[in-house]
């Protein structure tokens, strides 16, 4: 768990994982402990492996401590893609899209901060998110659209087609990339810029649960 440390090496005596501390501008140590976007596999190893990491994520959401209005935590719902339960990303992202955004006054749960809140919505609604922006990787969730087509400068298009058997189907059951089975929980920048076609089959039941 993240904890404040003096320049001489001594750790702060006061420590409360679920309270704001003076060495943090916003948020709690529990929230900030998950902000290692540049080395998520390293964070998982440090925390004791994928199952322990999943438990840490579960704990944050069960304590109702995920704070969407603090943008440094925006990658947290997508981190389940690094565990054996990527369906939890799909579930949490859908919940946030519904509860944290509206088209009325106060439609954002925090100020837009140079467009970060809005950008999160666009990515999540499309079905992929750059948890580590320099990794060439976009973590998947379930799109809210039935079809997405992004026109590229090279006259190609990146396309996503979603097979949704019912209105409550939010869990990814099967993926195809350019007609071939696809087993990863992410797509790459190259998938987008080369004009891949991603087909997503959804189900109403969590897969892997």
Key structural traits:
single chain, 209 residues, alpha+beta, GH92 mannosidase fold, five-stranded mixed beta sheet, three-stranded antiparallel beta sheet, globular
Describe the protein.
The protein has a single domain (34-203), classed as 2-Layer Sandwich (GH92 mannosidase fold). Helices cover 26% and strands 18% of the residues. The longest helix has 13 residues, at 50-62. The chain has a 5-stranded mixed sheet with strand order 3-4-8-5-6. It has a 3-stranded antiparallel sheet with strand order 1-2-7. The two termini are 27 Å apart. It has helices at residues 29-32, 40-47, 50-62, 87-99, 116-126, 189-193; strands at 128-129, 137-140, 147-151, 157-163, 171-177, 180-181, 186-188, 197-203. The mean pLDDT is 92. It is an alpha+beta fold and 209 residues long.
């Amino acid at each position: 768990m993240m904890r404040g440390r003096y320049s001489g090496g001594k750790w702060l005596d006061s420590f409360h994982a679920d309270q704001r501390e003076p060495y943090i501008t916003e948020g709690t140590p529990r929230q900030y402990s998950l902000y290692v976007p540049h080395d998520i596999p390293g964070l998982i190893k440090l925390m004791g492996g994928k199952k322990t990491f999943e438990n840490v994520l579960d704990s944050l959401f069960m304590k109702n401590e995920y704070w969407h209005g603090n943008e440094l935590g925006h990658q947290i719902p997508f981190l389940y893609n690094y565990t054996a339960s990527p369906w939890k990303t799909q579930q949490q992202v859908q919940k946030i899209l519904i509860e944290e955004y509206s088209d009325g006054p106060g439609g954002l749960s925090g100020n837009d901060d140079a467009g970060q809140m809005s950008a999160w919505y666009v990515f999540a609604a499309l079905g992929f998110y750059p948890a580590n922006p320099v990794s060439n990787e976009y973590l998947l969730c379930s799109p809210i659209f039935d079809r997405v087509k992004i026109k590229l400068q090279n006259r190609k298009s990146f396309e996503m087609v979603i097979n949704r058997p019912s209105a409550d189907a939010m869990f990814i059951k099967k993926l195809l990339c350019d007609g071939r089975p696809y087993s990863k929980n992410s797509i790459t920048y190259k998938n987008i810029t080369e004009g891949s076609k991603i087909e997503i089959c959804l189900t109403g039941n969590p897969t892997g649960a």
